[in-house]
Amino acid sequence: MRILIASVALCFAAALFTGTQADAAASGKFFDHSTKKWVTYGRSHHGKSPIKRKQVRYGGSYSPNTIIISTKDRRLYHIRDNGTAMVYGVGVGREGFQWSGTHRITRKAEWPSWTPPKVMIERERRKGRTLPSFMKGGPENPLGARAMYIGNTIYRIHGSNEPWTIGSAVSSGCIRMANEDVIHLYENVKVGTKVVVLR
Fold first, then answer.
1. Is 11 one of the catalytic residues?
2. Alpha-carbon torsion angle 81, 55, 45, 158, nearest 10
3. From the candidates 11, 33, 78, 174, which is the catalytic residue?
């Protein structure tokens, strides 16, 4: 039941594994999108991303303390005030759930709870899956360790209890990060930070 809940969360959950991927996940092996290889990756990694964050030089037009998300590249760039940007691997919306726009972070939360939207509950019910109406925050919650709410949308930049999905188009529109990375970003941004999502 926990795996099912985590797998169908609105913009917070991965597409369900099938076939070889399911077998690999069960055995603790996952696809590393940065190296394009299968690697051992389990709970002992404590939420590490298969795509290591890095600091790069930045000379673009966006001002410091702006978050840029490239849906195509599946990367989040946090522009710093010293001519650099911190780059994180992210999971983005799967086909049909991608979007773009400019907003600001309107709220931040640690170990957020999850209330699936009605449209998500109804969509999953038609597939024969039952979602909870509410899930308290914690390690099993699809939102992971931190969440930053984007404008007045239903989307968030949030952690994940499935870090091996980072680098994939897996969500229903939210920007998913490994817990280790979302905590790092969370500590370096404030409510009001500009968020630009590019397709």
1. no
2. 40
3. 174
Please name every residue paired with 57 in a beta bridge, in sequence order, or none if there are none: 84
Given the structure tokens 């709970």, which residue do they identify?
43
Q: Is 174 a catalytic residue?
A: yes
Residue 74 scores a pLDDT above 70: yes
pLDDT by residue (tens digit) across 87-124? 999 999 999 999 999 999 999 999 999 998 888 889 88
d(CA 111, CA 154): 17
Residue 50: what residue type? P
pLDDT tens figures, 9-40 = 434 333 322 333 434 444 445 454 444 555 55
Burial class of 19 by CB neighbour count within 10 A (0 to 12, 13 to 18, 19+): exposed
- Tell me which of 45, 103, 158, 184 is the catalytic residue: 158
Q: What angle do CA 11, 99, 72 make, to 5 degrees?
A: 95
